[in-house]
């Protein structure tokens, strides 16, 4: 209903657009299901957490164990190499002490005759060859033993060698000048007794790399003339490095790979073999590109053990220092397959254990949920089926724990409710009796007085004085007021009596109220504005209609005659089951000190001389609002007139 004239009401769009308030939904899951699911969830999460921690701890322990094993293997290989070098240096020093070493020096300086025992240079040479041959027979890992003079371009004086193909030992007849070799020059510059250990490289003969390739490490000791103290020669023993390589390989274990580099990181021994000694042929495959941490290991000497995520291997790297400035880089790697297999095995076992624990958790959860929820379900069923006037329902008073305490409390509550219901029934009977008295017995004397007063006033044969006529007038007006008060009390007592809550569309109720009050609205030319739409709630429809009628009627009635009444009604949803109604007017307002007392029966903010009424209307409103478990008050923030605020709750 929309009308733009002063005598209608104007429907305006709502700023809040409150829709019909939905009913509260019952939970989908019962308490038993919630408890069971919660216990299962907590149990499964706990087991998963413990399993994850256990697997992680086991994996960490296994990884640490594998890395420790790798470090031990690496240390054993380093010790094997150092032991081999110690043996080599001991043999070189032993050879330096044999008589032919100094005998050759003496004979060479004395025209090929030893002045000490008369032996010739040739004889001393033969004796030294025999000694060198003997050391090669005893030490299969030695390739050559040489006695190199420093004169004549470093010409070899004695050279005994092992054929690297068939292993035969022979005395070389073709001697070389090796004065330009770095190991000869470095050894010659050393003080007596010190040994120079060379880097590992491929053996060369007459400047060309020997084939098949034979890696060697040379130990060179300077020989000084015992008489003059001058350097005379260099004693050199060539150690076959491939013998050391074979020894390293022999110390193998499952899934273990070995790599060896020189101090520059170039491969001396590659795991796959293709880049071994590549630097000797003008190519370079540096191990640092495969293992970046090796650069730090070679530079600082600090060993490191780590997991290479790219190759999925544990890698242990260490520097093996020897001699004055030489070093090797030892790289051992082990596949993580063992760790992966362990993880898979543990995961499988934990999965089976988890399934068993989950089944146990489900059974335990169902049992616990039943024990907890059964008494509560019995209480819920009792509350749901009980109606006022019924006997106390059966309760689990013989249960256990908090359920037993709750059942005891509920039993006392139901007993108290039954007692209160009997009292209320007695009170209702008294109210019904009062309503009967108010509607018949109290009104009958008022009707009698009114009838005789009207008959006296209308009796034309009776002449009354002006004073008597005035008294008769006030008597009739008092009778009218008495009837209105009795009717108001009767209506007040009947509010909520035998009422049933139903879904009520407030918009329809307001439309009906305005239609009923159309005569009053037209008479005062009132402007009524309703902010649409209004919500739908579960209320007492008749009482709600009476509430809105009183509030709108008051807004029109208590507006001065020289002012056009303007009433604005709006609603705001507060929750899913409650809303707030605002009825604003431009009337005379209510003094602040009167805003609480006007809701009391027979209390008014203005005198009866100014505005007609019994003073019961707002008391009706408060009782109706209380019936809906709400509240009503005057909003003090209104700039002019009066704003009544009403909060209503769904009736369940």
Can you describe this structure?
This protein is of the alpha+beta class. The protein contains 15 helices and 22 strands. The strands form five sheets. Strands 2, 3, 4, 5, 6, 9 and 10 form a seven-stranded antiparallel sheet that branches. Helix 1 packs antiparallel against helix 8. The protein is rod-shaped and about 195 Å long.
Task: Looking at this protein, list some descriptive labels.
disordered N terminus; about 650 residues; seven-stranded antiparallel sheet; alpha+beta; 15 helices; rod-shaped; six-stranded mixed sheet
What characteristic shape results from the CA principal axes? rod-shaped
C-alpha-based Rg, rounded? 59 Å
The total strand number stands at 22
Mean model confidence by pLDDT: 79
**Helix proportion range:** 40-55%
SS content category: alpha+beta
Task: Count the DSSP helices.
Answer: 15
Strand content: 15-25%
| Spatial gap, N to C terminus | 31 Å
The major β-sheet equals: 7 strands, antiparallel
Structure at a glance:
The chain is α+β, with helices and mostly antiparallel strands and 652 residues long. It contains 15 helices and 22 strands.
Fold topology:
Layout: E1 9-13, H1 31-96, H2 99-109, H3 121-138, E2 142-149, E3 156-162, E4 169-171, H4 182-188, E5 196-197, E6 201-202, E7 204-205, E8 208-209, E9 215-224, E10 231-240, H5 241-250, E11 256-262, E12 267-269, H6 287-290, H7 293-300, E13 304-308, E14 313-322, E15 326-335, H8 337-385, H9 401-441, H10 443-458, H11 466-494, E16 502-505, H12 506-516, H13 518-524, E17 527-532, E18 536-539, H14 541-557, E19 566-575, E20 578-585, H15 617-627, E21 631-634, E22 643-649
Parallel strand pairs: 1-17, 17-19
Antiparallel strand pairs: 2-3, 2-10, 3-4, 5-9, 6-9, 7-8, 9-10, 11-12, 11-15, 13-14, 14-15, 16-18, 19-20, 20-22, 21-22
Helix pairs in contact: 1-8, 2-3, 8-9, 9-11, 10-11, 12-14, 14-15
